[in-house]
Design goal:
Shape: elongated
Helix content: 40-55%
Strand content: 15-25%
Oligomer: single chain
Order of helices and strands: HHEEE
Distance between the termini: 81 Å
Number of strands: 3
Radius of gyration: 26 Å
Strand order of the largest sheet: 1-2-3
Length: 122
């Protein structure tokens, strides 16, 4: 009578090489997020600034000046008041903007993001 000793168990887990690859991928994602986050925050600051500028003035010059003041306080560097597209539909004033942000990653590799926004209700 032969007896089988113990149960054969398969080893489970991650190898050192697998761990290094996973950490490298997570590191790259972390760096990308760290570089994109400030531009996203700036985009939302611009949206708030144009909403505020829309209520602050009635002429194109007043709206641009109000935006420039908001941009100074909010550290907005991507656009200025002169870059805003301001249109009037009767008594309703619509302000829109569009710009590109180039984020250098590694060497010649960059990330180009197109940002656009408007006060128009969609």
């Amino acid at each position: 009578m032969t007896r089988i000793s113990g149960s054969t168990r398969k080893q489970q887990g991650i190898t050192l090489f697998g761990l290094i690859v996973i950490l490298a991928v997570l590191g790259c994602i972390g760096v990308l997020i760290a570089k994109v986050t400030p531009t996203t925050i700036e985009y939302f600051s611009i949206k708030k600034a144009i909403a505020s500028a829309r209520t602050a003035g009635t002429t194109v010059q007043e709206i641009q000046n109000a935006f420039n003041k908001q941009a100074e306080v909010g550290y907005i560097d991507a656009i200025a008041g002169k870059d805003l597209e301001i249109t009037k539909n009767g008594d309703d004033i619509q302000i829109s903007f569009a710009y590109q942000k180039k984020i250098p990653l590694v060497g010649p590799v960059s990330l180009l993001i197109d940002y656009a926004g408007s006060t128009a209700k969609s």
